[in-house]
Amino acid sequence: MGALHEGHLSLLKAAKAQNDVVVCSVFVNPTQFNNAEDYKLYPRLLEQDAQLLAQVGCDVLFAPVATEMYKQTGKLTFDFGSLENVMEGAHRPGHFNGVATVVSKLFHLVRPHQAFFGQKDLQQFAIVQQLVQDLSFDLELVCYPIIREEDGLAMSSRNRRLTPEQRQMAPKLYEALQLLERQLAQVCIEEAKQAAIDFLAAYPQIKLEYLEVIDANTLQPISSVQEVEKVAVCLAAFLGEVRLIDNLLLEPKEIGL
Ligand SMILES: Nc1ncnc2c1ncn2[C@@H]1O[C@H](COP(=O)(O)OP(=O)(O)OP(=O)(O)O)[C@@H](O)[C@H]1O
Ligand SMILES: CC(C)(CO)[C@@H](O)C(=O)[O-]
Ligand code: BAL
Fold it and tell me: Which sites are catalytic (predicted)?
């Protein structure tokens, strides 16, 4: 969606290393926003994005305008069942319907052989995987790790909207996830979650929306980390009006099992 940072550029570099031609879409997609202010205030920096894309060897920048993108599109409805009834899907009504709509259109328009996504949007990646299966898109999906600022904050275009005070506070989200990971090696999930919730409660500027310990394959909350092959810890929180998400993928061995 543009306002590119090193997280996005890591995807571009990986794409360029593996392909002859790389296309990057920059499109602040109205149909995936459940909050009008979030859409209005989303950072838009197309000129700067174009320069950064040229520097990493991107071959094509596809930056349609919304009226053109949606000129002939009716209301499409997707059903991702339990994959979308949690976390982002539960808190952003209609969000994944909008994501699935625009990703389908982008795949048809660009016809990529590979498509690169970031782990930061873990649930989005699971939804897109399901979409590719459901609609038999002939492409390979690739997911790359989260690139962080030096203080641990996950890079995000929305970070630009933080005030200096909020920006200083924002790495607490990553610290909470790390605390949760450490706690999971020692106590049960409920206690571990409570420790992370209590940690964040000490910072009144941070309003936690959800904190989940999930099976990274099904995205469903789990009651014991021994249950599943791959665990993820995920959160969403507001700093003022700015909503940020972050997650860690944990291997069972990393949590002492
Ligand atoms: N810090 C990051 N590291 C790696 N990939 C990232 C990072 N941030 C975003 N991405 C990925 O880049 C792609 C484009 O994301 P998008 O344009 O929505 O950016 P964003 O920075 O996540 O914005 P926001 O968090 O404000 O929604 C997505 O696949 C996303 O997961
Ligand atoms: C998948 C996506 C391109 C849909 O607009 C967007 O949500 C993003 O960039 O993560
Ligand atoms: N970065 C994922 C899309 C969104 O937040 O709308």
Answer: 8
Instruction: For residue 8, indicate whether it is catalytic.
Output: yes
**pLDDT single digits (tens) 178-206:** 999 999 999 999 999 999 999 999 999 99
Atom of ligand 3 nearest to the CA of 156: 1
Residue 79 phi/psi, 5° resolution? Answer: -135, 110
For residue range 2-48, list pLDDT tens digits in order: 999 999 999 999 999 999 999 999 999 999 999 999 999 999 999 99
Q: From the CA of 257, how far away is ligand 1's center (Å)?
A: 31
The candidate with the shortest Cα–Cα distance to 247, out of 211, 215, 217, 199, is: 211
For the stretch 84-98, pLDDT in tens is: 999 999 999 999 999
Prediction ipTM score? 0.97
| Domains located in the chain, CATH noted | 6-144 (3.40.50.620), 157-251 (3.30.1300.10)
Cα(168) to ligand 3 centroid in Å equals 22
Mutational test site, ligand 3, from 4, 11, 32, 158, max ligand atoms within 8 Å of CB: 32
Which of 8, 91, 108, 113 is catalytic? The answer is 8
Q: Could you tell me if the CB of 121 is within 6 A of ligand 3?
A: yes
